[in-house]
Amino acid sequence: MKPLTLTILGGVDKDGSPDTVDKIEIVRGEIIGIVGPTGSGKSTLIADIEQFAIGDTPSGRRILINNAPPEPHLRSDPRKKLVAQLSQNMHFLADMSVCEFLKMHAKSRGKDPALAEKVVLLANTLTGEPIDPKHQLTILSGGQSRALMAADIAVISDSPIVLIDEIENAGIKKQEALRLLSGEGKIVVVVTHDPMLALMASRRIVMKNGGMTKVISTSNEEHRIFQDIERVDSWLTTLRETIRQGESVA
Amino acid sequence: MKMVVVAGTPGSGKTSVLMHAVKDLKRSGQKPALVKIDCMWTEDDRRFERLGVPVAVGLSRDMCPDHYAIYNVDDMLQWAKAQGADILLSETAGLCLRCAPYPDKCLAICVIDVTTGPNSPLKVGPLLTTADVAVMTKGDLVSQAEREVFRERILEANPKCRIIEANGLSGKGSAELADLIRTWPDISGEMVLRHNPPLAICTLCTGELRVSKERHRGVLRHLDGFMEYSGE
To answer: Per the CB < 8 Å rule, is B141 touching A93?
Structure first.
């Protein structure tokens, strides 16, 4: 596995004042969080990374790969793309069947179209109602769509940098999805309001008014709290499943 | 003088993409002038005027908008020259998708909206297949996978085009587009269209309102694909 460093060089906030954080370096295997109130610029920062900004976005930030500006074809050609992104979109607009769409996506990424089947199998481990490959994409529920998008990223996109925008709203098993997406040796950037996901990250970037204001490293105390939350969360997940299945919880 | 023709379906984001590109061009010292062609009505000229560049509007009214745009190319170039411009940007209102208003030496840009679904690159015909650049807009409204499938479909329709993912709201992609405009060769000599327009004019063009079949003349195509010529 080749070494990979993702560097974010600071730009400006919504008022044009420079980011307080002027440089962040992220290496393989790290999960880094982005936190902050709505409208604070979290999605903008994700978009800067996704398109490998070169000072050409409203934030003026620049993204480096292995300490150099990325080659132009890395920005656009899906076959070479280093970045896979799970965005906030919960629905597909394409009027195609699940299977046809996944095969087409595999083709665009230069992968084997037979992977489509694997994507559906994996997606069905993340969502309650199973997805049928013959279904039209547009009739899938929000949870099914998100599960399919996550599985598609893990299997077809399979890029070393994964960007995730608010997985907790997805109606899918969020931890399992995050584990699936974080795979071995990937750089994962996750926008989140969820304490468990935020503390699963080793650091988190704090956003305010469009700017990067600070970077907090997850402390040992926070890590202990994470383990407590994980226990509570798995208990809640069990309760939720019991209720979904139409049974009594006690 | 460089000439850029921007085409695309209504609402695809031509004007917004162009506005960002104009800002970038001005910043790098170019002098763009803009002609907005529409059929019935437009107020986009006011949006463009705010950018402080020369703007002219052409309404094609009873004439086919693409034919109107092509017929007036010489006048547009003269006007742009009189404004002291070095780039003529022409935004068209191509509607029937059967022809494409691109002279061979211009930079032909087709703006196409991702939310119209992955079949639309196959539907827009010569507007896309004869373009130099396809600008994908509204990509933020769909997943990355859907953007990539859309891109693949564009390449199926036009394997040689350069694809730029743009966002009319944030200005994403405009720097890349402006760069391409700046480095495009100047126009020279006689220009010819890249694509044959549709066959002849139809009875509707000359004012026929009655629907029934026997009222129509010219090269006619039936639902089952049969084509005939009816007339003198």
So the answer is: yes
**Residue-by-residue pLDDT tens, chain A, 250 positions:** 788 999 999 999 999 999 999 999 999 989 999 999 988 999 889 989 988 888 878 899 999 999 999 887 777 777 778 899 888 777 888 889 999 999 999 999 999 999 999 999 999 988 878 999 999 999 998 889 988 998 999 899 888 999 988 776 556 777 778 888 887 788 999 998 888 889 989 999 999 999 999 999 999 999 999 999 989 988 988 888 899 889 998 8
> Which ranges of B83-135 does DSSP label H, i.e. alpha helix?
120-123, 126-129
Of B119, B149, B163, the CB nearest to A105: B149
Name the nearest CA neighbour of B32 among B70, B71, B76, B73.
B76
Does residue A141 share a domain with residue A232? no
CATH number at residue A193: 3.40.50.300
Summary count for chain B: helices (H), strands (E): 8, 9
Residues A149, B143: C-beta atoms closer than 8 Å: yes
Strand order in the sheet with A23-27: A23-27, A5-9, A62-65
Global ipTM: 0.81
